[in-house]
Design brief:
Rossmann fold, binds alpha-D-glucopyranuronic acid, globular, alpha/beta, two-stranded antiparallel sheet, eleven-stranded mixed sheet
Length: 417
């Protein structure tokens, strides 16, 4: 079956050169000017994930080929599970919170020598029957997710604080991004961990975090996003020892850079039964070939430690990528995937995030699922919930209660009913 996915929004040859986005040459310091004008989106052709695929059987080898390409050219190949030398160091007894309807437990685990704290918020019913969970990294430490004095303060490098240490005063400061009460009321659990416990988010030549034990990655091996994703799988390994958690029903979730991470984790480990990317943008759900907002050149320049060395060659050369973000979503098929955008989050290219869903849809349909309910970009706050879910909400780059309402509804539909 041959699918031709060609989008012609504009003929680049007809435009005078002075109207093109201002892309500085490699190594130059000229200011990067993002393009937000649809009329200036270059003509592009997307590689067809279903090329050469005739039967469902063919999809297995095609999928393996696409996965290998995205691994070696973008996120880096992952270390083996054994390389983590995973150890569960301690499990705290449960503490009742939220008027007695939620049990807070903490696990301390070792992943490739790094001490990683996982906070588990479980509905009390989990002691009778294991519950499905959302699993996702937080940006600022578990203590910021919920205000409780028993939550361990991270010892690792903090990105946001002036002294790069965690502080008591920040307890609960990110709680607006974590709808724990809604999650627990819907009979789901939440497992969350600080991403800097695994690999601190700055470019240090891969000397710290898990790389201190795994070694400096080659150009085709996992850099930071790749090892963050890999460590999420190691957390699932650890959760397999917790009776209250149903590890057959784990929804992996992430916001922004951690949304890029959740998509790659979902593509890499089929134990993730459902995958959610919130405002993941460039290198996540947004089609790179559109070059709207952040581009491949820009992301590699700003965050050289996120993607593997080979990905650098696609800066200002997106057309040479043997995949695009629709491929990333297709690798998750037929498992449910949810992509969420925010209307004011232009840097992440909401339309590009939606179009990835549109172009992953043929794979979802081919594999017998409902795919994406509409190919027309919905208006803000009118979600689409098929096997591919999508919404664009009003507002800025963030995770809000509205987003969580959609995720809980989507996960209930796919993992519970
Ligand atoms: C920057 C970066 C994005 C990323 C975001 C975030 O804006 O350019 O790619 O998604 O940070 O993680 O918050």
């Amino acid at each position: 079956m041959k699918h031709s996915v060609i989008t012609k929004t504009f003929c680049i040859a007809l435009l005078p050169i002075c109207t093109l986005p201002n892309f500085p040459a490699h190594g130059q310091d000229a200011k990067f000017v993002p393009n937000y004008d649809e009329a200036r989106v270059p003509e592009y052709e997307l590689p067809d994930p279903l090329s050469g695929v005739e039967t469902k059987n063919d999809w297995g080898s095609r999928r393996a080929e696409l996965y290998e390409r995205m691994a070696t050219q973008m996120f880096g190949t992952m270390p083996s599970p054994e390389a983590a030398k995973l150890r569960i160091e301690s499990t705290s007894p449960g503490k009742l919170i939220l008027d007695g309807k939620c049990v807070l437990r903490q696990l301390k685990i070792k992943i490739a020598g790094q001490s990683v704290d996982v906070a588990l918020f479980l509905p009390v019913s989990a002691s009778e029957k294991p519950v499905p969970i959302f699993l996702g990294y937080n940006f600022n430490g578990n203590h910021t997710v919920f205000d409780d004095s028993s939550i361990t303060l991270p010892q690792s490098w903090m990105r946001k604080t002036a002294d790069h240490k965690a502080h008591e005063k920040d307890r609960g400061s990110s709680s607006g991004r974590w709808a724990i009460e809604k999650i627990v009321d819907a009979n789901f659990g939440l497992a969350t961990l600080y991403y800097g416990d695994v690999d601190p988010d700055f470019d240090d030549g891969f000397r710290n975090g898990v790389h201190s034990q795994l070694g400096v990655p080659s150009d085709s091996e996992a850099a930071s996003i790749g090892t963050w994703a890999w460590a999420l799988s190691r957390v699932v390994d650890a959760l397999e020892t917790i009776d209250e958690v149903d590890t057959q029903r784990v929804a992996v979730i992430g916001h922004s850079r951690l949304g890029k991470t959740s998509l790659w984790a979902g593509a890499s480990d089929e134990r993730f039964a459902l995958v959610i990317s919130n405002n993941s943008g460039c290198g996540g759900a947004a089609l790179s070939r559109r070059q709207v907002g952040e581009t491949v050149w820009k992301i590699n320049d700003s965050f050289p430690h996120w993607f593997c060395g080979n990905f650098k060659q696609y800066g200002r050369n997106e057309g040479a990528m043997p995949f695009d973000s629709h491929t990333l979503l297709a690798l998750i098929a037929p498992r449910p995937v949810y992509v969420a955008s925010a209307h004011e989050d232009r840097w992440a290219d909401p339309k590009g995030e939606f179009l990835s869903c549109v172009h992953a849809d043929p794979v979802y349909k081919f594999l017998g699922t409902s795919g994406l309910p509409s190919k027309k970009m919905p208006a803000p706050n009118t979600p689409l919930h098929g096997t591919i879910g999508y919404h664009i909400r009003e507002g800025k780059h963030d995770v809000t209660d509205y987003d969580w309402q959609q995720y809980i509804q989507f996960a209930t539909k796919h993992l519970v009913q």
